[in-house]
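Input set for joint prediction.
Command: fold jointly, output tokens.
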Amino acid sequence: MHCAADEHLALTDAQLLSVEKPERYIGHEVHAVYKDAGAVDVRYCICFPDVYDIGMSNLAIQIIYGMLNERDDVWCERACAPWTDLECLMRKEQIPLFALESQDPLREFDILGFTLQYELCYTNVLQMLDLARIPLYAKDRTDCDPLIMGGGPCTYNPEPVADFFDFFYIGEAETGFHEMIDLYKEAKRDGLSRRDFLRRVARMPGIYVPSLYDVTYHEDGTVRAVTPAEEGIPAVIEKELVRNLSDCYYPLKPVVPFIRVAQDRVTLEILRGCIRGCRFCQAGQLYKPFRERDIEVLIRWGIAMLENTGHEEITLSSLSSSDYSSLAELVECLIPYCNEHHVNISLPSLRIDAFSLDVMRRIQDIKKSSLTFAPEAGSQRLRNVINKGLSEDDILRGAREAFLGGWNKVKLYFMLGIPTETEEDLAGIGDIAGKICTEYFDHVPKEERGGRSVEVTASSSFFVPKPFTPFQWAAMDTREMYQEKVRIVKRSIASQVNQKRIRYTYHMSDASVLEGVFARGDRRLSSAVLSAYRKGAVYDAWTEHFDMSKWLSAFEECGIDPAFYAHRERPKEEVFPWDHIRCGVGKEYLYREWERAKRGLESVNCHDGCVQCGAAFYQTGCCVR
Amino acid sequence: MIRVRIRFEKKGPVRFIGHLDVMRYFQKVMRRAKIDIAYSEGYSPHQLMSFAMPLSVGATSDAEYADLTLRSFPGRTMDDPPREAPDLSLLIARLNDVMHEGITVTDACVLPEGAKKAMTAVCACGWRVSFRPDVLRNEDITLPAEGSLRQAFLAFLDRPSIPALKKTKAGEKQIDLRPFIYEADCSDDGVFTLLLKAGSEDNVKPSLLLGAFLGKNELPPAALVLHRTQIYQAHPERERVILPLIADPADASSLKMLPATV
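tokens >
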């Protein structure tokens, strides 16, 4: 076990004792890595623009952390956004933001790598840079400042934060990170200027240096073109992708936090990508093609990770676990070990059918667990629009089998604001919840209910059109439209015979609208992010901190009309701010799907046929089967 | 089943880990070390493990204790006849191999049949404490002038009664701390050495006693540098004699006599 020779902490005991959960800021967790800062060539810090509890639940952070620390020439550390109590203290007492391991100020690092998991974390990026005393705009940084890099799902359209970053790494870290670090090491040795390093790294696959691209606009405000500003800079940036998942780095000794974080368990990623072509889902497109890990590798890794961490739960993670070809066998092989060691297996994102119910019955406590269905839309017509590939019959049969198997709690996830949605589609939400209740009362005799009854929870979120999906051309609903839709759903639930057994929850719409602005935003939004931050916007993903009025006044101040980004349907020929970035699926394919969506036509999934999406470019996974 | 008590230190940055997280930490340690710990019966089985006393966040300790119920010992199976004493050093080594620096198991013993849980056996704690003057200043609390601290403290202890307002679950209650102070002294450089009553009843925290000394209620956690030196239980046979939660009752050097007033 690594030892920290120096027990120095950036905060005094009195400071640590004055904030909530001081364990967030002291490092020293099991499998945290300590090295001699003077003995490495590159000091890298993974920065997570949200609180530690969320950051330490993130698989990408564990992968990059473990992978970089395998190298003797790099010390990779971590930093998360300080919670608001500490932020306040740091400003008052002028304490610069520090990394968890060395507790050194972030300014002393070579590279700060931010992971951008969701759009509402953008003000926290500024909060962290600001507290670290690093100029917020990339153009204001000098050779003395660390390089600010971004990665993660939001970097497929990084334009709204492009002005704050020196470069982005687009795609999966396992393939190109080492090369990028090598290049930096060389540049540092040769005394290259910041600008010259960026010119060099911009030629690497998967790297996007926004300052080396010019954006021009049409008079109507839409993008005319994004073009390289210099000779030799690639016009298009292709995402990086792992070809063989069974033969790439995986963090078998992940950091084990002391506090209970959001994901307090072993995460075993069984596959990447998705065969389903759900038209609302960005992840499904970004991570194509579908690639599985070998079952032998997964069993070995899963058990090694449980032994190394001592976690009491392992989750088999993926976008759609039911599509893993040897799922039954994998679970079968893990059950004996897990039973012997009192470890729970959790299987999120399962399709509910006889097989998955059988698996769940064996690994979970039925009485406590609830079953989750994600019909996403209330009517078959609308489910066809989103290409969900799930019929009402599938849902009712799944629910019936679950009730007969002893479950009585069902959760249903829906989205409101799907393109082409009508009042009838919305009313379908109440109907399907009602029909599920009826299945219970029809099939579970009173004497077998054990004093319990069916509990159905329907939750809805607001649909946000995302880049690289067939809905990237669609207009997003306004806040008023959402509110009206919520009323329709409420009415439809209230009209059910079994309405007392149905609970309805929904998220507020303002944050979703903001997410919609940034998802399809362009470079001009950077000024609004900064303006909102200056007005005190931070932790926008947290309901208790989110304040739309700060954003509205920031947009106004910057002359930005949020509706232009969120509520406008785009014509076919429009150039998108993210068109110079490629994730594999082509714009032509996405447009074909958008047209089919509007006509309510389903498309096949990658298992049953090929829709020529373009991901075959990567020549791997389900594309070469 | 074998009941085992372990003693561990808590030092360094891990002093900021709260009691519940220390418990979670030990549960994970048992798994990493492959200790054959017993689980409770029922719907959600949990490891049979209990801790003597919570330690405040930020405090360090030489001697924390936890009781474990094991199904078998490392290196032995359940079926081995319990002829000879199990090798506790193997258990300690196995735990320390996967333990975090800062938390170290320093001793262990097998508990005799019917022994009280550490949690119920606790009767006193030893402390080494000093003030954080900057925190006190922020709270507008003034310390006796430099050089007179010890004298002032001894004079305070000479009082026949030391009333204090103790916060309990039911509210606040007025108690007299004097009979619960078993030993107390203060060095010239301001380090207090205390032996105070502890346990489920009349538990006296250093922050309460030193708050009373400064004429205040309980001091905020940050006002003191807290270090627990030992946790004690009553001697099985002798009145007014206490000994650490792991100690040989026959070993006179580990025993402490309580004042006659107790």
